[in-house]
Specification:
single chain, about 280 residues, mainly beta, Immunoglobulin-like, 2 domains, five-stranded mixed β-sheet, 19 strands, elongated
Length: about 280
């Protein structure tokens, strides 16, 4: 009960001022299910009074919910979409229903759960502040992202998230890793970290591996969030290095507050023979 009060209070804070405009009314009763179809999957749905019940799939987000009502005073329904869109309606009990299905368009959203920001990609340093090597890294990375070239089949997939190394390029004593992350799942992917390391496999009865992390000298277009259905490309720049047959490079993608972590192993031949 306490959590419900906190969530309700929070929702009342962020609803935009558009909510002050006259809201559409949806009618329901206790005998029939009134179906509401939204333009994005439902993350939360809350009614303002106990005589109205809005049910939706809380385990697997879907695009529709069902509304029922018992006799009583009118109330309101607040629905939050998986992408942050906010929908608000007046709900009223009615004995006879003339409409059982509501198809709701995106334009009916009254606002967003949070302000729209430009944090999908971490801001690179302004060009005027970049001097010498960093300015060159930026220009060359931008050029690489505009090219269409793939280096073998270097990709790994897990739960709808695809990690791919599209290219490894040598230029001016640096190795440029062109990396793509594609989100084919129904949930946004919040990036915690993307690391490259070198693993040395020991031989013998007690096999183990030593790991040495490689720190990039520059990153370009490193994302914070990969939205549902989105592809994001980035570039990692490292000082030139090579590895022996007993070693391999490992690219690890880690999800913030999630379990969709991916480890992509890269053979020495791709590192030692870049484009």
């Amino acid at each position: 009960m306490k959590n419900h009060i906190l969530i309700t209070s929070f929702l009342l804070v962020f609803v935009s001022s558009n909510a002050q405009n006259q809201l559409d009314t949806i009618y329901a009763n206790e005998h029939k299910n009134v179906a509401l179809f939204f333009p994005e999957a439902i993350s939360q749905g809350i009614t303002g009074a106990g005589n109205f019940v809005f049910t939706y799939n809380r385990e697997k987000q879907q695009y529709f919910g069902l509304l029922q009502a018992k006799p009583g005073n009118e109330s309101n329904l607040l629905v939050i979409g998986a992408k942050g869109s906010v929908f608000s309606y007046i709900v009223t009990y009615k004995k006879q229903l003339s409409k059982l299905n509501y198809f709701i368009g995106k334009a009916e959203s009254i606002g967003s759960e949070k302000p729209i920001t430009h944090d999908t990609v971490k801001e690179d340093k302004p060009e005027k502040k970049l001097v010498g090597k960093e300015a060159y890294y930026r220009r060359f990375s931008s050029y690489l992202l505009s090219r269409k070239q793939r280096l073998g089949r270097l990709k790994k997939r897990k739960q709808g998230i695809v990690l791919r190394i599209e290219n490894i390029v040598f230029d001016k004593e640096q190795l440029y890793f062109v990396i793509q992350v594609e989100n084919k799942s129904s949930l946004d992917y919040d990036l915690n970290f993307l690391d490259l390391s070198i693993q040395t496999r020991k031989k013998g009865k007690k096999k183990s591996a030593q790991t040495l992390f490689k720190k990039p000298v520059f990153t370009y277009k490193l994302p914070v969030k990969i939205k549902e259905g989105q592809k994001v490309k980035m570039v990692y720049v490292f000082p030139k290095f090579s590895i022996s047959r007993e070693r391999r490079a490992v690219l690890k993608l880690n999800e913030k507050a999630g379990e969709r972590d991916i480890t992509l192993k890269v053979s020495h031949r791709f590192i030692n023979h870049p484009n």
